[in-house]
Amino acid sequence: MSTDATDTTPATTPTPTHAGPLLELDGLRKEFGGRRPNVAVDDVSLDVHEGETLALVGESGCGKTTLTRLLLGLLEPTAGSVRFDGRDLAALTASELRGVRRQMQVVLQDPYSSMNPRMRITDIVAEPLVTHDPEARGRRARARNRERVGELLEAVGLDAGIQDRYPHEFSGGQRQRVSIARALALHPRLLVLDEPTSALDVSVQATVLDLLADLQRRLGLTYVFVSHNLAVVAQVADRVAVMSRGRLVEVGEAASVLRTPRHPYTRQLLDAVPVLDPRRGRRAAARTSAQTDAPTDAPAGEAAGEPTAEPTDEAGR
Q1: Which of 8, 70, 169, 175 sees the fewest Cβ atoms within 10 Å?
Q2: How far is the C-alpha of 315 from the C-alpha of 7, rounded, in Å?
Q3: What confidence score (pLDDT) does residue 136 get?
Q4: Is it the case that residue 54 has pLDDT exceeding 80?
């Protein structure tokens, strides 16, 4: 981590107004379709506390993306509620919701796909400012915006002089740093990190994770870290929420969930991590063979021949 990043990171964060969890999900359910709807998220209850990193893990198609869109207010739940800083998103007016969204930002898996290739870096990073702050619009604001963008770029370890370049001129790791700079533009309290390092080389992953840890420590940020990489989760998470078939099957402290998982599905995820010793791999396969063959119509979170484990922590409240 460069000293520039440490010295120039914006230090202003909104003052908490609610004594409880920053983010509260209560009985969330989301259905798609008509007469026979597909249930993407089913009865999810979860709290996310100020300053922590909650990892949301599960295989593709388990409902992680839908859940993050619900908590960001990008989808309306079929049932249940999302509260941010004690405020129910569904009860807010359009202008109030716009204000809340300033405090909730997202960093996506593929930074290049989230950027307009025809826009310069200065306009990409300044886009949230222009969208949410009328004073950041117009020709008179350009000089002030460039100064702010320069501060943000230096905060994520990039040179402020790159502002006039285009996304295709950068590596994947550099583009992800630009995405993080853009997410920080409005002084958010919550960042949803959707597989932020999965498209990067291992060495680059480490530098991006170090950057995120440094920013969280300095700014008091709260992270919802979506990932299927349990090695990364073990490194960054304070707590882990395991999702399967739209439901949370296990929630708890990261060390406890990853070392002594209670639910069969969590054990399957851990056993699927590649190992160098083939004998260990065969033993893991033997332990989970019955669970892997579970019928597709089994209740969510339940493996063949085993009862559903009670979710720990907030899950299933």
Answers
A1: 169
A2: 39
A3: 83
A4: yes
Whether this model's pTM surpasses 0.85: no
- Long-range contacts of 231-234, Cβ-Cβ distance < 8 Å, separation of 24 or more: 231/273, 232/197, 232/205, 233/55, 233/57, 233/258, 234/258
Domain that holds residue 217: 3-103+187-292
Task: Check residue 207 and give left, alpha or beta (phi > 0: left; psi -120 to 50: alpha).
Answer: alpha
Query: How far apart, in whole angstroms, are the C-alpha atoms of residue 249 and residue 161?
Result: 47
C-beta of residue 46 within 8 angstroms of C-beta of residue 248:
yes
Total domains present in the chain: 1
The torsion of the CA quartet 272, 276, 278, 280, rounded to 10 degrees, works out to -60
User: Percent of the chain at pLDDT above 70?
Assistant: 81
**CATH number of the domain bearing residue 245:** 3.40.50.300
Q: Tens digit of pLDDT for each residue in 77-107?
A: 999 999 999 999 999 999 999 999 999 999 9
pLDDT higher than threshold 50 for residue 7: no
Q: Residue 119 falls within a domain, yes or no? A: no
In a domain, 20, yes or no: yes
